[in-house]
Amino acid sequence: MGLLLAAMVVLVFGNVVLRYVFNSGITISEELSRWLFVWMTFLGAVVALKDNGHLGTDMLVGQLGRSGKIVCLVIAQLAMLFVTWLLLSGAWAQVQINREVEAPVSGLSVGWFYLSGVVFAVLSGLILVGQLLRTLSGRLSDDELVLVQESEDLAQLEAAHKDAAAARH
Description:
Elements: H1 2-21, H2 29-50, H3 66-98, H4 111-137, H5 151-168
Helix pairs in contact: 1-2, 2-4, 3-4
């Protein structure tokens, strides 16, 4: 993702400099930077899924007992797997449809653009299946049964850690 971001910065910044200083530009810059942004976004979503970094709320689930939390987590993971399957089938269909279509500036196959959705769905599906199997095996601690925390809870937790660290010193 860092390499994709660096390439985007070079393409866009280089194009801006060329446009305003030399009255020219890199024709392919806009198209490639858009494609790189889409790939970076999908790969970032995979990383966030792996780290449970997506936004959410635990107002209801946090009040349930262990069994209720497990049931809700399994339902959520199955729903995410279903949506991932929908994305995979749709993205794969777009890859097939656009495989022979050339991008207007670069001439690259537009299928490469839609392949980002396929890569996201495959990687996310593997992560979700692994999480679901771990949930069903009963190897999750009580803290792991709730995948998100409210932003206020995180702020209170960080403040408590700082207060505890200050009290120790």
